[in-house]
């Protein structure tokens, strides 16, 4: 019966290589059982420096990183920043026991795609991993296809190509977009001037329902705005008390 259940759980789920950087061995041992149940391969590192070295040695190997913030030898925020210097695409889920909102926001700004607060349910982490991986697979499939010069979104000042995963403002490439930042920009830009709440963006971009994680959206919007402002005027507008919208009318 157990083997049958495991088989059913694994149907349709791609084998993943997960790098879990976590200094709590009990948490790692617990998650190892859940990863095995999903048919995923996992490598565990117990301090920040070792985790970064493991990633840097073979960055193309890893499909997902779970990263604790409070690590010995090298803080998780520094690890996230250094990983992002190597790869803009590898998905990172930050694990934190810290209650400080600023820590969570800074972690997201350092390059994490999502965060889960300790203590957490293993099933919650598994669900977040699946959602993030599903989005990453879509992005990877699109970018691996033959380059297409046809743009999916074209306005007077802005254009996006989902196959090449490129966005341009006034003819200049918005460089260094992570998969989540690109998906967030695309979600907003394909419906100009429509206001999206944070809850809607979590469902559309992160594939999960709203559970009080507005900071995830806000941190990614902040990073996205900083990258847009390097090439031109701001096109993501805040609608106070509601959410965000895309509007490039003033981008000339």
Give a quick summary of the entry.
With 252 residues, the chain is α/β, with parallel strands linked by helices.
Task: Report what the structure shows.
With 252 residues, the chain is an alpha/beta fold. Helices cover 44% and strands 18% of the residues. It has nine helices and twelve strands. It has helices at residues 2-10, 25-38, 48-57, 76-86, 101-109, 122-144, 179-189, 198-205, 214-229, and strands spanning 17-21, 41-45, 64-68, 92-96, 114-117, 153-154, 158-161, 166-169, 172-173, 196-197, 236-239, 243-246. Strands 2-1-3-4-5 form a five-stranded parallel beta sheet, sandwiched between helices. Strands 6-7-8-9 form a four-stranded antiparallel beta sheet, with helices on one face. Strands 10-12-11 form a three-stranded antiparallel beta sheet. β1 (17-21), α2 and β2 form a beta-alpha-beta unit. The radius of gyration is 19 Å and the shape is globular. It starts with a helix and ends in a 6-residue tail after the last strand.
Describe the secondary-structure layout.
Layout: H1 2-10, E1 17-21, H2 25-38, E2 41-45, H3 48-57, E3 64-68, H4 76-86, E4 92-96, H5 101-109, E5 114-117, H6 122-144, E6 153-154, E7 158-161, E8 166-169, E9 172-173, H7 179-189, E10 196-197, H8 198-205, H9 214-229, E11 236-239, E12 243-246
List key phrases describing it.
alpha/beta, 9 helices, four-stranded antiparallel beta sheet, 252 residues
